[in-house]
Amino acid sequence: MSVAIGNALPQVKEHSLYVTGSADEDGAVGALEHFGLMLLMK
Question: Residues with Cβ < 8 Å from 17, sequence gap 6 or more?
Fold first, then answer.
């Protein structure tokens, strides 16, 4: 699984399977939610 945060370099985003929101938009949380991993943390 490869995830890039929204404000990553274009080269990084182009090689990622999923691009989430920016750091200011809580992109890391968005990626965890997208892949259903937040349920494991509760």
Answer: 1, 2, 3
Tens of pLDDT along 1-42?
899 999 999 999 999 999 999 999 999 999 999 998 877 665
Report how far residue 7's alpha carbon sits from residue 18's, in angstroms, rounded to the nearest whole number.
Answer: 13
Q: Which two tokens stand for residue 5?
A: 């945060």
**Alpha helices (H) along 1-42:** 10-14, 27-34, 38-41
Structure tokens at 7: 């404000």
What is the domain partition of the chain in residue ranges? 3-41
